[in-house]
Amino acid sequence: MAIKRRQLLILGGLALGAGIGGAAVSGILSRNSQAIAPADPKATTANNPKPTKSTVARSPNPAPKGLYAPARGDVRIVVISDLNSAYGSTDYIAQVKQAIAFVPAWEPDLVLCGGDMVAGQDNSLKPSEIEAMWQGFDKHIAAPIRKAKLPFGFTIGNHDASGSSFGGKSTFENDRNAVIKYWQDPKHDANLNFVDRAGFPFYYTFAQNDIFFLTWDASTSEIPSDQLKWAEKSLASEAAQKAKLRIAIGHLPLYAVAKGRETAGNYLDDADRLRALFEKYNVHTYISGHDHAYYPAHKGKLELLNAGVLGDGPRRLLSGDIPPNRTVSVIDIKLETAETIYTTYDMDTLKVIDQSTLPRYIDAPNGRITRRDIKI
């Protein structure tokens, strides 16, 4: 089970006067998007009439006023992660609220969240307090995104509903029940074009703009065997292999990148085996949260986006001396060449993070990962 986050709320002021970030954006690392013949063409398909492609006219360089405005790709995704604060908190710090207010101006086709949307994983919280956290999430995060009519994909974090168990019994059953109650309420429609929603909200697949997304329950370090079988079947399906790109999402990373997150239980078990599964079915990127530190990387044929933290508790990377920060990433994708271009904003300064200032590689306890623009 992942280590609990600290309970003290860090109050960070939003440095709006820090000026516009430079035009430096993260580099491009191409991946071959050629489809692999599916091993099993069958998939559970939901009857969902929502279009997978956006029909809304888009600006060539959309961005919030005063921020660096990158050129948009064929598809644009805004990635946020780890939004929460102290245990039981029903509110969010200023940087989170500002980022959510910015989202529509980036004109994304999709918003993705790497988990930890609320601050649970504390059995001293009453069911009513857990429900109040999700009401706060709806007020400050989900409702503004729904109002903007943006699809919202997410993965469940350990503070949302940890999948840990003891003696066959769920350790955080109240958290798990609250997640089901919130996300299966029609009022909280995530506006996704589901391919398979049988395990929603813990694991599911959806399609958006010719991209196939797989979300699994990585709220603990072990992906259950039945879910691994489901993941392989899903990635081998016709829907996945006909897509121009495949992206997977889970809360815990494959390889640790942050100080305080390098201990067992804070990254996925058998990372190399899981990476081999993704590589087998030509998954382009695995997006994760939990480490509270931004680091775009690659290992083997798989890109890795450690999405960083937007809420409380930013952490230092295992290598280098970069100060911890809060981040939002805008990913622009060129479908025909499988190029992904990152523009990541430091939400404390509103400047764009220069990828070249990040460590060239990080030696995680279970393997080395390399910055995504460095070819090896």
State the major sheet. Answer: 9 strands, mixed
Series of secondary-structure elements, N-terminal to C-terminal: EHEHEHEEHEEEHHEHEEEEEEE
Shape: globular
The low-confidence runs, each spanning 5 or more residues with pLDDT under 50, are 1-49
Number of helices: 7
Mean pLDDT: 88
Secondary-structure content class: alpha/beta
How many strand units? 16
Strand content: 15-25%
Q: Percent helix among the residues? A: 10-25%
For the terminal residues, how far apart are their CA atoms? 33 Å
Q: Give the C-alpha Rg.
A: 19 Å
Oligomer state of the chains in this structure: single chain
Question: What is this entry, summarized?
Answer:
This protein has 376 residues and is of the alpha/beta class. It is built from 7 helices and 16 strands.
